[in-house]
Amino acid sequence: MLLNVMHIVLLRNGTRALILPAGKTLLDSPPEVRCWLGAPCDDTATELTVDTPMLGIHPPTVLAQLLQNGFCALDASGVVQNFRAKSCSPDATRTDQAIIATPYP
């Protein structure tokens, strides 16, 4: 059963976003997820419900990812589910680090 409301922190970098439960930091996510996101440009504390309007994203799926994985990663294609561990050096390209994205209409 999903929660009705969850307090979250939204970290953004370009078209990528990472949603964490409130009280968690970027360091609480796996290294490959931190590498995929890069340095966040913006962070926002807010609430997420099953009815939160999210263009192209299914909020119950985001809540399920948060409860199951402790984070939810999003990009322009939807919820990112698998990551490839890559070097986080400044020369590493980040476009090939997310290998599976599940878009939701």
User: How many domains, in number, for the residues?
Assistant: 1
What is the molecular shape? Answer: globular
- The tally of strands reads 6
Distance between the termini: 23 Å
Unreliable residue runs: 90-105
**SSE string:** EEHEHEEE
Strands of the biggest beta sheet: in what spatial order?
A: 3-1-2-4-5-6
> How confident overall, as mean pLDDT?
79
Q: How many helical elements?
A: 2
Give an overview of the whole structure.
- It contains 2 helices and 6 strands; from the N terminus they run ββαβαβββ.
- By secondary structure, it is of the alpha+beta class.
- The model is unreliable at 90-105 (pLDDT under 50).
- Helices cover 17% and strands 36% of the residues.
- The chain has a 6-stranded antiparallel beta sheet.
Keywords:
2 helices; 6-stranded antiparallel β-sheet; 105 residues; alpha+beta; disordered C terminus; globular
Write a compact overview of the structure shown:
The protein has helices spanning 31-37, 59-69, and strands spanning 5-13, 16-21, 42-49, 72-75, 78-83, 98-102.
Q: Topology of this structure?
A:
Layout: E1 5-13, E2 16-21, H1 31-37, E3 42-49, H2 59-69, E4 72-75, E5 78-83, E6 98-102
Antiparallel strand pairs: 1-2, 1-3, 2-4, 4-5, 5-6
